[in-house]
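Hi everyone,

Forwarding the result from last night's run.
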Amino acid sequence: MLPSWPRWQLAVPLLFIVTLAASACSRSGIDTTVATTESTGTTSDVSTTGGTDATTSSPDSTAGSTTTVAAPDSTTSTVAVEVPEYSIESRTGGTGGDTVVILLEPGTYTDLDLETIVVDVVERFAPVATVHVVDDSSVVPLVLEDLSALAAEEQALLDLHYFARLEEGFRLVFQGPFATVGQVILGS
């Protein structure tokens, strides 16, 4: 037969165990990191800090996809990553990958827009080693020439309409109006 303990003596250790388990399950203030989420159009690195959700969305020409990762004690929100429209004006094959010139419609772009476009080109049209991003068709042949040999008026035109250059397939160097941004290593 089992020893006869008063019920309250059994309740105290049980209450202690429940309290300990509840405190161990509480994760507020703990960082949660979501690894790279890949979809057909874009790869995004998403990080969240305790209490925030991370959602990535990547459009494709035929269908979009959304990945939602919920962090503890949070509500769900969606952030869409949209690739601005572009056209490929030139593509030249090379041994280490192709050289591609992208033409954007004149408009207002951010450095994030330019990075998103370049990542989309690299993923969709591999192998790509070099990408030039411009918004004026008259500068397309100029970006393929030796830039140090350009005339002053040609260089002035590039300063206005040449936005970014991908080098070695991973280093995005901002040009012209975006030169102050510097460079970004893709995939880091």
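Helices lie at 7-25, 111-124, 140-143, 152-161.

Cheers,
N.
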